[in-house]
Write a structure and sequence with these properties.
Strands 1-2 form a two-stranded antiparallel sheet. Helices cover about 30% and strands about 5% of the residues. It folds into 2 domains: about 35 residues; about 70 residues, Irregular (High-Potential Iron-Sulfur Protein, Chain A). By secondary structure, the chain is mainly α. It contains 2 helices and 2 strands. Bound molecules: iron/sulfur cluster (SF4). Iron/sulfur cluster binds next to loops. Iron/sulfur cluster (SF4) binds next to loops.
Length: about 110
């Protein structure tokens, strides 16, 4: 008695091949998007532009968390607003409400 694997049916073969092809295409598209994003730097806002900005995004909309993410923190982000003199509460030019200098969100951009 032998234990040879059952033959692959035509439908199984076509389904697995199509899934692999779709996954490869999706990965390639995601990589292209990431490369395009890094190849086109976002212009750094000027101090005057930052002063006129009104934060409108909710913390939930940008996935804000009260902790660092991969070593990145709000305090090193171009949108970060340090506490006003005499206060300890930080804010953001994009995200409404108080934030932590040690927090992070998906809109994070390194301050140069
Ligand atoms: S990481 Fe997000 S919440 Fe923090 S300063 Fe930057 S934009 Fe604002």
């Amino acid at each position: 008695m032998s234990f040879a694997p059952p033959p692959l049916r035509r439908r199984q073969f076509l389904t697995s091949t199509a899934a692999t092809t779709i996954a490869s295409a999706a990965s390639a598209a995601a990589l292209q998007t990431a490369k395009a994003a890094t190849a086109t730097p976002t212009p750094t806002p000027t101090a005057a532009q930052l002063r006129t900005m009104v934060p409108t995004l909710s913390k939930a909309a940008v996935g804000y968390i009260d902790m660092p993410h991969d070593g990145d923190v709000c305090g090193a982000c171009i949108w970060f607003k340090p506490p006003s003199p005499g206060t300890t509460i930080s804010h953001c030019h994009l995200v409404a409400g108080p934030i932590s200098a040690a927090g992070w969100c998906q809109a994070w951009m390194r301050r140069s």
